[in-house]
Amino acid sequence: MHIDLTGRVAVVTGGANGIGRATARRLARSGARVAIWDRVTAAGKAAAVALEAEQLEVHFIEADVTQRASVDAAVAATVARFGGIDILINNAGITRDALLVKIKDGAITGGMTDDEFDDVVAVNLKGVYTCTQAVVPELLKRGGGRIINASSVVAHHGNFGQTNYVATKAGVIGMTQVWARELGKRNITVNAIAPGFIATEMTAKMPAAALDAMRSHTPAGRVGSPDDVANAYCFLASDFAAFINGAVLAVDGGLVIGT
Predict the structure, then answer these.
(1) Range of the domain at 65
(2) Are strands 107-110 and 102-104 parallel, antiparallel or unpaired?
(3) Per-residue pLDDT tens for 123-143?
(4) Which residues are catalytic?
(5) Fewer beta carbons within 10 angstroms: which end of the chain, N or C?
(6) Would 240 be classed as within a structural domain?
(7) Is residue 1 part of a domain?
(8) What b/e sequence results for 180-199 when a residue is b if at least 16 CB atoms lie within 10 Å of its CB, and e otherwise?
């Protein structure tokens, strides 16, 4: 399947590293002009430079998805650079894992803090809302477009120590389905992907035993790569997915059925 995104402009939030960077590369290799939005300036610039060296049209724009003014400025900068926006990949996300409560010898000794909860909600949930609301007017000017949001397999099944993360990823699915209803008649499709265990900078910090356990529970026999998720994003952004709306595509190697 050859995906041709020539003439289209894509925004990838959290595009400086990992899945976001792989997605920026995949979209650009398919012909899109890509704006990487990220608040990590050094990594974002490095990613853009590396992709430009591959003769790909990629530009870095500093943006903090938790701040409305920053997002609005990023929209304006993207339009000034590329003339419009056709595709929004809401990929930015963080984790702040902690147990709801820590219990030792029958006594509560700690637990997730308000800051840990609020930080994850601000990026993973409200950031998706803010970016989408800011970009939709630009999609309407182009006669339609694609919005693809990052959820997770844990949205359906929970995960130990991730009250905040799971809540946001379940919320993303809800927002995706609402927006699919609201925007579908405007020729804007809204879908989500639900990655399983993907080898990124974030997961590299996990203990080896945890990595082995996740691999053993995945029927595909391996952990996913950022390119696996990037390919899914690219497909949903393409004309091949024109009649897919409000869907959640699992990219997990069968992890859910294997557990």
Answers:
(1) 9-258
(2) antiparallel
(3) 999 999 999 999 999 999 999
(4) 165
(5) N
(6) yes
(7) no
(8) beebeeeebbbbbbbbbbbb
Instruction: Please state the domain count of the chain.
Output: 1
* Single pTM value for the model: 0.94
Cα(40)–Cα(33) distance, integer angstroms: 21
Burial group, residue 227, by CB count within 10 angstroms (0-12, 13-18, 19+): middle
The answer as to whether 4 is a domain residue is no
Full pLDDT tens readout for the chain, 259 residues: 799 999 999 999 999 999 999 999 999 999 999 999 999 999 999 999 999 999 999 999 999 999 999 999 999 999 999 999 999 999 999 999 999 999 999 999 999 999 999 999 999 999 999 999 999 999 999 999 999 999 999 998 898 899 999 999 999 999 999 999 999 999 999 999 999 888 877 666 666 666 666 666 677 767 789 999 999 999 999 999 999 999 999 998 777 665 5
DSSP 197: S
Give the pair of three-digit tokens for residue 215.
């691999």
Is residue 2 included in any domain, yes or no?
no
List all residues 6 or more positions away from 63 whose beta carbon is below 8 Å from its beta carbon: 13, 37, 38, 39, 70, 71, 73, 74
What burial letters (b/e) apply to 31-53, b meaning 16+ CB within 10 Å? Answer: ebbbbbbbbeeebbeebbeebee
Q: State the CATH number of the domain containing residue 15.
A: 3.40.50.720
